[in-house]
UniProtKB/TrEMBL annotation:
This is GTP cyclohydrolase-2. Residues 174-338 form the GTP cyclohydrolase II domain. It comes from the Bacteria. The gene is ribA. Gene3D superfamilies: GTP cyclohydrolase II. CDD domains: GTP_cyclohydro2. Catalyzes the conversion of GTP to 2,5-diamino-6-ribosylamino-4(3H)-pyrimidinone 5'-phosphate (DARP), formate and pyrophosphate. PANTHER family: 3,4-DIHYDROXY-2-BUTANONE 4-PHOSPHATE SYNTHASE, GTP CYCLOHYDROLASE II-RELATED. GO terms for molecular function: GTP binding; GTP cyclohydrolase II activity; zinc ion binding. It comes from Sulfitobacter litoralis. GO terms for cellular component: cytosol. Keywords: GTP-binding, Hydrolase, Metal-binding, Nucleotide-binding, Riboflavin biosynthesis, Zinc. Belongs to the GTP cyclohydrolase II family. Zn(2+) binds at C222, C233, C235. GTP binds at R217, L218, H219, S220, A221, Q238, E260, G261, R262, T282, T317, K322.
Length: 362
């Protein structure tokens, strides 16, 4: 028992399997076989259809709305898979890339009634693996035997539910001195979750007094803006302005949270950019992909701040959700410090959409 994986570790394995295209089994009162639509291969689709039964493609209500499919299950829908379903059909239901060129996938018929718990959990798991949120699912009669014969990871649904709903605790791993242009008194701290997910970083500048509100920034990773100097967003200038202000005040803490693309990952963010090139705004693009407009959990930030000994911040942000989430998770926001930099002709509409639809302050 000591050596075997616990449920958190099994879920990490399951995410890796799903990313590779290997199916998993969700065991519970309704045992099912689960594959991520994004990584489904022709051979596995053929194998699935040969098993018979009633396979479905579970998609989020956001994606269902675009496809005019009925989300009888509330936050998701179970689209019946035609018995001769082609891989192209599965991928085009899951992926909006060709929606405009090929708008009709249907009419799509959806299952209703019965226990849909495994379908919802499968979508959550696939989302946490940063894949398109769409799951091909088939009921299994002898799940244990099927899993053993095929060497598949088995996840106990009841054990997995609370783990997927909670956030994994973050542990400090190491910190070291990091002299930087903005301040020679820099220190980089690494935090690691238990669930095999992304590590997050804190850049401490100076030696801030723990008994006073610290100048802080919760920065979400943006490869395109932070590293490549993209003009499509304002992340790079915000990152540098926040660091510069901390440097000139002599104190501060910048959390670099690896929640790229507002929590959907860089690949899905690029899918969203591709939809933006087709005329959708940043919020519509996320919805067409099946995501909420913002999938981030800023409580990660308060967990890190608390573990570093901070209980009160002067938060550099224009996003009221960050302020609310900090306060709700026990870090006092003594002051919101606006961070208005980096507007240009390419990101003007993006910033206007964030103000109009996501509540960002102008
Ligand atoms: N999904 C998606 N993510 C984006 C897009 N543009 C930027 N991002 C990501 O958005 C995050 C930055 O969020 P913003 O909304 O700019 O700012 P914020 O962090 O909510 O608020 P501020 O504290 O005021 O900067 C980063 O993770 C970027 O990778 C986009 O078009 N689509
Ligand atoms: Zn950005």
């Amino acid at each position: 028992m000591v050596f075997g994986p616990d449920i958190t570790e099994q879920l990490a394995r399951a995410r890796a399997d799903l990313r590779l295209g290997v199916p998993i089994v969700l065991a519970g009162s309704r045992p099912v076989l689960v594959m991520a639509a994004e990584t489904l291969t022709p051979a596995r689709l053929t194998g699935l259809l040969a098993l018979g039964g009633e396979p479905v493609l579970a998609i989020t209500a956001r994606r269902a709305e675009t496809l005019k499919a009925h989300a009888y299950d509330g936050s998701f829908a179970r689209v019946l898979l035609p018995h001769d379903a082609a891989l192209r059909w599965v991928k085009s239901v899951a992926d909006p890339a060709d929606d405009l060129r090929n708008p009709m996938k249907g009419p799509l018929t959806c299952a209703r009634g019965g226990d849909a718990t495994p379908h919802g959990l499968a979508i959550d798991l696939i989302k946490s693996a940063r894949l398109l949120p769409a799951a091909v699912i088939l009921d299994l009669t002898d799940a244990a035997q099927f899993a053993m014969q095929n060497g598949l990871t088995v996840i106990d649904l009841n054990a997995a539910k609370p783990i997927l709903a909670a956030r994994s605790p973050l542990h400090p791993v190491v910190n070291a001195r990091l002299p930087m242009e903005v301040s020679e008194a820099g220190r980089l701290h690494i935090f690691r979750p238990d669930d095999g997910g992304e590590e997050h970083y804190a850049i401490e500048i100076g030696r801030p007094d723990r008994s006073k509100p610290v100048l802080a920034r919760l920065h979400s990773a943006c490869f395109t803006g932070d590293i490549m100097g993209s003009l499509k967003c304002d992340c790079g200038p915000q990152l540098h302005a926040a660091m510069a202000q901390m440097g000139s005040e002599g104190n501060g803490v910048l959390l670099y949270l690896n929640q790229e693309g507002r929590g959907i990952g860089l690949t899905n963010k690029m899918r969203a950019y591709s939809l933006q090139d087709q005329g959708f705004d940043t919020v519509e693009a996320n919805h067409r992909l099946g995501f909420e407009d913002d999938e981030r959990d800023f409580r990660l930030g308060s967990d890190i701040l608390k573990s570093m000994g901070f209980s009160s911040v002067r938060l550099l942000t224009n996003n009221p959700r960050k302020v609310e989430m900090m306060e709700a998770s026990g870090v006092k926001v003594a002051e919101r410090v606006p961070l208005k930099v980096g507007e240009n002709r390419h990101n003007h509409a993006y910033l206007a959409t964030k103000a109009a639809k996501s509540g960002h302050l102008l």
